[in-house]
């Protein structure tokens, strides 16, 4: 088994360092309390603004539930004092794994306003200290690949609106040891929409479909794939797609909180074939490498998905009518099937069925969840007591995503 895959030792204890490298890692991030001049502050009655969560340690969280204080243990718990660089420090190994050839998914979960987009970095970039996961991962990625800083189209371009003609690499680079393609899709109401599409053809876009090739690789058709050669190009694509997500709606806020946004990178690398025993040990399992490579070289193909999930809040009864109800049910189905798939993967019953086909989201992520893939979930919560029931839901969802792997399987007798 690879070093990064899940341990299946009897009893499933997670005592050693090696064992903590499980295939699904779940972190909680507690956002700072709303301040009096933050939007939404006035909506919360004073007596409900006090915090209902306490970070007990870097891996445990206490929640004041109506049944009393409950303690939850995660791979990591970030308090409101942990800033973007602290979260990234924990996640940076994901980019090393991606460059090694693993498929990786990074997921942000939680109720609207809890900090998913801020954490993932799909919100507008701002200054670099507030950069979320995607810009930091992009930076680390090009550093790993040894790409020279291009600077040609500088980061100043990010503040102005980005136009379609600006995205994608202006030049076809050949004979590189690697190539990167980016896609950016939104899943809304179980249909996929390309976010890297010309503003003018927004209402007339091709149908995006998900299919699976013979080797189990998930392919998307009808989607723009941008060749990306630098950090700046990646940021332009991200910023452009995020702005399309914002403007492409009649009920903007309601919609973006109900849709999943998936920014994905596909990295193809030409690497020297491992020769010595040590090189072979440090390399990927051979079945993960593409066949038909040149003599002396292997082709390593990997994916990195950044997923800004739909808001996890439950629909209010009054809204459960007509179109709204359909949306709500559909989004909940996506989050519900994601939770189910992660649980199924964690319980790791070899050969057992995994319900990837239950939703577009899990289908899209199929080759990047489970198997040799590595998944990180950051579940975002708001500390105020006002949001206690959603916070409890989020923490329990996150716990389910993680719990089964750390508990021994119950033997049927
Ligand atoms: P979501 O995507 O979950 O709906 P956002 O990421 O848009 O939530 O966060 C809502 C607001 O709170 C944004 O203005 C964001 O900048 C701010 N925010 C969220 N988390 C943090 C944090 N950890 N530190 C500072 N500001 C935050
Ligand atoms: Mg958001």
UniProtKB/TrEMBL annotation:
Compartments where found: Cytoplasm
Ranges of compositional bias, category Low complexity: 1-10
Residues the entry annotates as binding ATP: 110-117
Domain Kinesin motor: 23-404
Family of this protein: Belongs to the TRAFAC class myosin-kinesin ATPase superfamily. Kinesin family.
The protein's name in its UniProt record: Kinesin-domain-containing protein
Organism of this sequence: Terfezia boudieri ATCC MYA-4762
Part of the whole protein covered: 28 to 440 of 1184
């Amino acid at each position: 088994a690879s070093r990064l895959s899940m341990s299946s030792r009897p009893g499933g204890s997670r005592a050693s360092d090696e064992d903590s490298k499980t295939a699904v890692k779940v972190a909680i991030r507690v956002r700072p309390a709303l301040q009096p001049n933050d939007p939404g502050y006035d909506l919360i009655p004073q007596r409900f603004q006090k915090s209902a969560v306490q970070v007990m340690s870097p891996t445990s969280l206490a929640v004041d539930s109506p049944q009393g204080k409950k303690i939850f243990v995660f791979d990591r718990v970030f308090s409101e004092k942990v800033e973007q660089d602290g979260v990234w420090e924990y996640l940076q190994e994901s980019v090393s794994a991606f460059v090694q050839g693993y498929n990786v998914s990074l997921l942000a979960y939680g109720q609207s306003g809890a900090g998913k987009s801020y954490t993932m970095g799909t919100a507008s970039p701002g200054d670099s200290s507030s950069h979320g996961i995607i810009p930091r991962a992009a930076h680390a990625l090009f550093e790993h690949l040894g790409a020279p800083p291009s600077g040609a189209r500088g980061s100043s371009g990010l503040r102005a609106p980005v136009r379609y003609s600006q995205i994608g690499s202006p030049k076809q680079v050949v004979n590189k040891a690697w190539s990167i393609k980016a896609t950016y899709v939104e899943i809304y109401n179980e249909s996929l929409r390309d976010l890297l599409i010309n503003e003018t053809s927004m209402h007339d876009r091709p149908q995006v479909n998900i299919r699976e090739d013979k080797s189990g690789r998930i392919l998307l058709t009808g989607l723009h794939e941008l060749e990306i050669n630098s950090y700046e190009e990646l940021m332009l694509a991200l910023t452009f797609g995020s702005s399309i997500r914002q403007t492409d709606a009649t009920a903007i806020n309601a919609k973006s909180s109900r849709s999943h946004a998936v920014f994905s990178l596909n990295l193809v690398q030409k690497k020297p074939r491992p020769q010595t025993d040590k090189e072979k040990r440090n390399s990927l399992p051979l079945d993960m490498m593409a066949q038909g490579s040149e003599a002396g070289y292997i082709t390593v193909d990997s994916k990195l998905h950044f997923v800004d999930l739909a808001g996890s809040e439950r629909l209010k009864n009054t809204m459960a009518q007509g179109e709204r109800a359909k949306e709500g049910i559909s989004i909940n189905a996506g989050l519900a099937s994601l939770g189910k798939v992660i649980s199924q993967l964690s319980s790791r019953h070899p050969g057992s069925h995994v319900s990837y086909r239950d939703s577009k989201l899990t289908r899209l992520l199929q080759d990047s969840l489970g198997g040799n893939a590595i998944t990180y979930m950051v579940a975002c919560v708001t500390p105020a007591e006002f949001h206690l029931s959603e916070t409890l839901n989020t923490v329990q969802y996150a716990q389910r995503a993680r719990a089964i792997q750390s508990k021994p399987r119950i033997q049927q007798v």
